[in-house]
Request: fold
Amino acid sequence: MEHASTRKTWLIVLLVATIAVAGYWQIAIEEAVEGQVLIETEALETGDILRTVATSGAVRPLITVEVGSQLSGQVAEIYADFNTPVRKDQVIALIDSKTFDSRVLQNRADLSVANANIIVQQAHIDRAKANLRKAKLEFERAEPLAKAGTLSESEFDTALAGFESARADLTVAEAQLENARANREQRQAQLESAEIDLERTRIRSPIDGVVIERSVDKGQTVAASLSSPVLFKIAQDLTEIQIEANVDEADIGNIRKGNRGSFTVDAYPDSEFTGFVQQVRLAPNEQNNVVTYTVIITAANPQRQLLPGMTAIVEIVTGKSEDVLRVANAAVRFKPAADSELAKQTPDAGENRQGRSAGPGAGRRMGDISRLKTQLGLDEDQADRIERDVREMFSGMRAQFQGLEEGDRDTLRQQMRQRVSAVFEKHLDAQQFSQYQQIQQQTEQTRTGLLWIRSKDGAIKPVEVRLGLSDDRFTQVISREVVAGNEAVTRIREPKTRP
Reply:
């Protein structure tokens, strides 16, 4: 008991000593930094930058077809089950066909009757033609006799009436033949319809694929009075799958068709699969005031490991730069305190960058003649003409810019960029204009930034650079004034004063 008490006492003494030492060092550090400015820096370095968008989505077959029945009836046979591979037009189920068989037989009999009726009507026509010839001969013999006065008028009228009656009988017989033919066509159509219904009792696969769902059993009755009941779901070749990923509206602007994506599923946590963005669907999905867009990612599935319905955790690569100069994001975000001496060194360009981007002068950065003159190899005449036309264009559009809403200003800026491009195209040859377009494309993919570089002697100066691709740690730096190894300021801790 005494031993346990002694041990407890030593533990308390050790804890108190540890707290005292920690407090001493904290006070020592605070006293060391009192009156000093602590400058934290990160060295610029060469490396890779990979920008990704993380999301998730469900694994789906490329094509899924729901196979239904157009007829009501009892399922007589089932020839396919879950996971059964099927070929196009293969019979996978059979609806009881007795009723449809009898309809086919009945319609065939009706068609035979219609064919026989046509033969009868053709015989009636032949008889009507014979009667017409006889009546015509009698009329032709009676007509001269009546003119000669050797035949009474009543006998002539009888011969004429017999001739006209025989001609009318032929017309009626011909009409009855046409009616019989129309009736045969009707019976033929009814027979074909009955045969189609009989064929529909054989449920066939519309595609090559595999059955992923079966919704009926043998003996079950299906009703197709209002809508076609779904009997099977067939997925086309599962060696190719797609992922329907939901991407937040803040990230959708960086995603393009062809972007590479990698993903994992819980079933294979140690395996990483690769796919490519096939489609960015324009229809938004809004839920609880959160807007997302569906991105379709296709991937190979040769081993059929990925099954429909699995949840995939996806990373879509939206940008990649290899072996570039990069700096920590904290250096890009750093700004000296407004009342500090460093703030006074900020270039006017840095101070007024926001103001310039809001007005029509923003287009001047695209038409910076002094910069482009060297890059494009412009002669003095070209440079003067381009500068004159650009100045006139900005002067004419400045009045339009005043009083516009921000959305309208964006539209006007776009028009200005197009007009600047037209000015350069007018005064440059084909090769120069191609170089100009490349420069502009690079400019649009970068932005102006300001880094605070500390030299070896401790002096800090601002350097304007162009910033390119960013990820969660680094930002690409494009500049001739900074190189790998330069120290960029990320934080300045002001001197502490005791109360």
In short: The first strand starts at residue 38 and ends at 43.
